[in-house]
Specification:
- The chain has helices at residues 3-6, 60-63, 66-73, 81-89, 159-165, 183-193, 213-222, and strands at residues 9-12, 18-21, 27-30, 52-54, 76-80, 95-98, 103-106, 109-115, 122-124, 127-129, 135-140, 146-149, 170-174, 197-201, 228-229.
- 22% of the residues lie in helices and 26% in strands.
- Strands 7-8-11-12-13-14-15 form a seven-stranded mixed β-sheet. The protein has a six-stranded mixed β-sheet with strand order 1-2-3-4-5-6, covered by helices on one side.
- Bound molecules: zinc ion (ZN).
- Zinc ion binds next to loops.
Length: 239
């Protein structure tokens, strides 16, 4: 695809973690599960800089290393109010809390928080804290390209609204099953979202994740959805 021509680089760090470097040289880390992410290649666990971190929900495999990375790189952390309050208590500065339906501009990029169907409790020190509601993000780049990071979610009919209001060029969709959509639901999601490209995520990191990109291609074919599946390997960049 023409990501390089469009002037950005999107790298899958495994699971639901993505690193985006934009045309304007902004680095965005989505769901920063890096250190203990079994799929993340070692050489990608260090960063030159991080301008923005987005957090879709409070689970450990998504909130991940937000506290450590925030203290090291001083990014803006875009998340819901409850997660921002949790991060404040951990001594993290520069949280930007928002809620679904809203758009915030950070570092010249636009972040729209959208609905997801999932839970969001934050486990810390053997206790579970309320983490607000799980969400997804539509990130609008400097040139208008839109990337939808669905976070963990079931398929839901509001995806039709996401497709109408913020038609994504690229959708980063979970396909693993068990905790999220499987390829069958992801294909229905794609029918509503109509992205040009789908990058499958949230699979391959646990035996309970049975979904594969090949299964997604088959399900899309059954529904006559023409979105192209770009199956990255962990560490691979869309190019
Ligand atoms: Zn989750």
């Amino acid at each position: 695809m023409s990501a390089v021509n469009r002037g950005f680089a999107l790298t899958w760090l495994g699971h639901h973690t993505f690193k985006l470097v934009t045309r304007g040289a902004r680095t965005v880390l989505m769901d920063p599960w890096v250190e203990s992410n079994p799929a993340c290649p070692k050489e990608l666990k260090s960063f030159d800089k991080i301008d923005v971190i987005t957090i879709s929900h409070g689970h450990n495999d998504h909130l991940g290393d937000a506290v450590m990375l925030a203290k090291k790189f001083k990014p803006v952390l875009v998340c819901n109010l409850e997660i921002s309050l949790f991060l404040d208590r951990k001594g993290v500065a520069n949280t930007l809390s928002m809620n679904k339906g809203g758009t915030a501009e950070v570092a010249g990029l636009r972040f729209t928080m959208v609905h997801a169907v999932h839970s969001s409790g934050i486990e810390d020190g053997g206790q579970v804290f309320y983490g607000g509601e799980a969400a997804g993000f539509v990130i609008t780049l400097e040139d208008g390209t839109r990337i939808y990071h669905a976070g963990d979610t079931a398929v839901h009919s509001d995806m039709a609204l996401i497709g109408e209001l913020y038609p994504p060029d690229i959708a980063l969709l979970p396909i693993g099953d068990h905790y999220t959509m499987s390829p069958r639901e992801a294909a229905v999601a794609a029918r509503m979202l109509k992205p040009r490209w789908i990058v499958p995520a949230h699979y391959g990191t646990s035996p309970v994740f049975t979904g594969t990109p090949e299964m997604l291609r088959e399900e899309l074919k059954k529904l006559n959805v023409t979105s192209e599946v770009v199956a990255l390997r962990p560490g691979e960049t869309l190019s």
